[in-house]
């Protein structure tokens, strides 16, 4: 069975213990790791690992010892309670083994939780979990966390009372931050509000929000968005010297221009003063307009495909040329 959207979010927060297995896959390893952590916590509880009710089996170990998965699934522990077996970084080469184990699963056995990178529609591992009557398949894609996902993080951190503008501010920040940074920000807010009975406010979010989100990358992207063409090449050279990759820069640019497109199209009202970048981005969105932003996103998608292809062109030079072209689109 495959789950998507809000249904997947709810399932990961509270997995069904009567299921034989769960597959979580996606290109963003941090997002997969966070959701895996959430799902395992929901299955075995906060004391599960300490009570040895969680067995970790890296995929590389299973290739050397295939019987380890069946043994871990059927083993009986010293402590009462649900158990889980975690298979990390799996790929299609383990489909047959995992399929055989799932066939033998019985109530009382440990649930098999599998994580994987980006799987295509033709992936045999993905198809196994989609078709299995007692397994769940959840794909994580490069989309900003939903309001429901942010709400789940806040509840897990013990932040129950939240003003509407504070929630809107966190949702806006989540569009610009990596998943791990979003969770870190929520954890900082929980410590900041420890012992304070007042609801979480927009001012609290602004106080704890990162001052800079990958400041160097932001600097060059803002230069492009504001048409400061002469600044682009020196900034790109500096980022390259710091070890920033062309793909990372392209991902950051696509994320920024998607946010501008939402603002220009009126899909994101950008309420309140909770996001220090919001006013600047609204100004950029007005200057670009919907049509030119769509041209910009098409150019960035084309560039991303080139960077990930077998092209021998220097990656950062390809990215720099694309950023300079964006200045002319504007």
UniProtKB/TrEMBL annotation:
Any one of the GO BP annotations: DNA-templated DNA replication
Domain of life: Bacteria
Entry keyword set: DNA replication, DNA-directed DNA polymerase, Nucleotidyltransferase, Transferase
Assigned EC number: 2.7.7.7
Catalytic activity: DNA(n) + a 2'-deoxyribonucleoside 5'-triphosphate = DNA(n+1) + diphosphate
Enzyme class: transferase
Family named by the database record: Belongs to the DNA polymerase HolA subunit family.
NCBIfam families: holA (TIGR01128)
Protein name stated in the entry: DNA-directed DNA polymerase
Organism the protein comes from: Cereibacter sphaeroides (strain ATCC 17023 / DSM 158 / JCM 6121 / CCUG 31486 / LMG 2827 / NBRC 12203 / NCIMB 8253 / ATH 2.4.1.) (Rhodobacter sphaeroides)
Source species taxonomy: Bacteria, Pseudomonadati, Pseudomonadota, Alphaproteobacteria, Rhodobacterales
């Amino acid at each position: 069975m495959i789950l998507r959207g809000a249904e997947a979010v709810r399932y990961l927060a509270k997995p069904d213990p009567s299921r034989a297995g769960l597959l979580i896959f996606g290109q963003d390893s941090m997002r997969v790791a966070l959701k895996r952590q959430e799902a395992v916590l929901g299955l075995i509880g906060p004391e599960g690992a300490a009570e040895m009710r969680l067995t970790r089996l890296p995929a590389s170990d299973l290739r050397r010892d295939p019987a380890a998965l069946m043994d871990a699934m059927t083993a009986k522990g010293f402590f009462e309670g649900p158990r889980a077996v975690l298979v990390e970084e799996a790929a299609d080469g383990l489909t047959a083994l995992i399929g055989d184990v799932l066939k033998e699963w019985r109530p009382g056995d440990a649930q098999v939780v599998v994580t994987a990178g980006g799987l295509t529609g033709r992936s045999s591992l993905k198809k196994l979990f989609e078709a299995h009557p007692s397994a769940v398949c959840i794909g994580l894609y490069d989309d900003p966390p939903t309001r429901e996902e942010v709400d789940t993080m806040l509840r897990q951190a013990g932040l129950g009372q939240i003003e509407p503008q504070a929630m809107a501010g966190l949702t806006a920040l989540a569009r610009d931050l990596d998943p791990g940074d979003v969770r870190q920000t929520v954890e900082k807010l929980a410590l900041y509000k420890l012992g304070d009975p007042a609801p979480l406010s927009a001012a609290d979010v602004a106080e704890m929000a990162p001052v800079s989100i990958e400041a160097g990358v932001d600097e060059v992207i803002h230069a492009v968005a504001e048409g400061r063409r002469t600044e682009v090449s020196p900034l790109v050279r500096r980022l390259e010297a710091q070890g920033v990759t062309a793909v990372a820069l392209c991902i950051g640019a696509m994320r920024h221009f998607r946010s501008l497109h939402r603002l220009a199209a009126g899909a994101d009202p950008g309420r309140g003063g909770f996001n220090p970048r919001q006013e600047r981005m609204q100004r950029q969105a007005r200057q670009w307009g919907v049509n030119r932003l769509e041209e910009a996103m098409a150019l960035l998608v084309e560039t991303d495909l080139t960077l990930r292809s077998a092209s021998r062109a220097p990656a950062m030079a390809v990215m720099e040329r694309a950023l300079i072209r964006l200045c002319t689109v504007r």
